[in-house]
Amino acid sequence: MQNPLQSYIPEHSIPKVEELLAHEKLDFIVKKERKTRHGDYRKLPNGRHLITVNANLNSYRFLITLIHEIAHFEAFQKYGRLIKPHGKEWKHTFQHLMLPFLNPDVFPKELLPLLAKHFINPKATSDTDHVLAFALKQFDEDSDKTYIFEIPIGSVFKIYNGRQFKKIKKRVKRFECIEIKTGKMYLFNPNVEIEVI
Predict the structure, then answer these.
(1) pLDDT tens for residues 132-174?
(2) pTM of the model
(3) Which DSSP string do the residues of the chain spell out, in sequence order?
């Protein structure tokens, strides 16, 4: 019988992930795509805990997201509810949980140095590490995406929700863009997926 996790994460990661998910009060659900998040963790009013991860993620991003959310659960169990969501307790837990997966049996060799660097000080989302995020996107099924860093200054584009912007200039890491409708300035990470108008 096929393991349901087999459709979502690298094969060599399945036994360890099953072990992490084997908690009587922890539920795990694969969700349809959500544009604003890859996954989430919540403590439910009935005392159970729920982790959700988007079904549309490639297997490497799915695994990182799932371990990210399991780290929230583990940190809650160990340190209680008063810790910061992405504070030092969560970071330490995430690093500890992720370490067994950082090997060439689970991740492609080209991702391992980027993951090692990222997990020195993991962020609230791997998307803020634009080098790692771009490398992970190379494994997505839809490979004909356009990213904001690829278009020239002055280009007009729209994002997933239809809002239109004009690319103005690059700061140190992000791009200044003006929303066409409101004239407000926004900062975009280089790896934001866009559609050129």
Answers:
(1) 988 998 898 865 678 898 899 999 999 989 999 999 999 988 9
(2) 0.83
(3) ---GGGGTS-GGGHHHHHHHH--TTEEEEEE---TT-SEEEEE-TTS-EEEEEETTS-HHHHHHHHHHHHHHHHHHHHH-TTS-TTSHHHHHHHHHHHGGG-STTTS-TTTHHHHHHHTTS--S-GGGSHHHHHHHHTTSS----EEGGGSPTT-EEE-TTS-EEEEEEE-SSSEEEEETTT--EEEE-TT-EEEE-
